[in-house]
What does this fold into?
Amino acid sequence: MEFKIEHEWNSTPISHDPVTICLKPARGGLQMDVTAPFFDDPPAPPGAAGEPFHGLWDYEVVEAFFLNVEKEQYLEVELGPHGHHLVLLLSQRRNIWKACLPLSFEASTTEVTWRGSALLPWEYFPPSVDHFNAYAIHGSGSKRTYEALYPVPEKEVQAGQKPDFHRLELFKPFSFSVLMGEEWKEPGSSLWKMDHILRTIPENKANSHPEKELTYKITTTWDSKEVLHEPVTITFKPHLEGLLMEVTSLFFNDPPAPPGEPGEPFNGLWDYEVVESFFLNSKTTQYLEVELCPHGQHLVLLLSGVGNAFKKELPLEFETDITSNWGKWRGKALIPWAYFPPDVDMMNSYAIHGSGIGRVYESLYPIPPQEISQGQGPNFHRLEYFKAFNLKWIMGEEWEQPSSCLWESSP
It folds into this structure.
């Protein structure tokens, strides 16, 4: 399937050779090949070639959108001539719930042309894709040019209107069967199954009238000794789709960053620099463990029984910053309601940093000194030391915790 972008977003014909996008069947996904004029304006983004670059839309870029109209779920793929890429999963218009996914992408340039080839895994496509659009952007300042495969019809362009690539009503029908054959079935996607879980959480009107936020400071080690530095601060805030967890902490950079991709789950994150919060139903011993790392990795575990994780490495919307405030790091995560066990009533939080004999384990609610036995070490799963916590303290007394199909399958 070959597409040529011959108009600007407002149906004005372009004045250069068109961008060509070719879609081909490939092992494990769809191959997207781009041939385009190379303007080299703006210059290359400051990120490493071959890696995701958030905000790529502000540079020279070609984009393709694959949409399920009925559910308004869509995949956005952005490719740049300098080798950068950006993959976004969106649920409802402009609502990004997964960003910076890895992509196999190669690009090359000449003085006047650039070519790129990317393999889009089937896992990234929403179920039942039936519409498509594509775009190209280049230029700086007043020369910034926005082009569209399916533009706004000339008669519908209004004075003062600006380009908007999320006008889903302008997308046109598209079918993988043209490429793959009538008998082919789009593979299922575990990524989009998680989106389905989040979308089926019932909304509670009380969510729009939150009571307050809660802030905790970790001032002791696991064995009740006072920490010798500025304490880690954890703040919980209300959000319609879940609980916001914000972390402010000194940045020790010890151990160094885990070998996993920032923004992705990393099993074994507890062996690195990390801040953790646990949310417990004390009656059933079901609990949620959330681990956040200053380098951008995260780990979400669902546990039923002490130390018994039955789900792990769940996706998480998490962003972190270790550069804007020297010596500190800040992180913000949105923990979906689907991850919390029913009737959370207890909580504890922890922080870990350091290597070897310098490894430090800190606890919001530590083991009392009189209860520490000889030779005992840190154990963050001592649920008897958790203390009272209620999500209604944040969400309001009228709020009811949404049910979760994740926990319906717990052991």
The chain has two domains: 2-192, 205-408. Residues 224 and 368 are 6 Å apart (CA to CA). The chain has a mean pLDDT of 90. The helical segments are 177-180, 190-199, 392-395, 405-408.
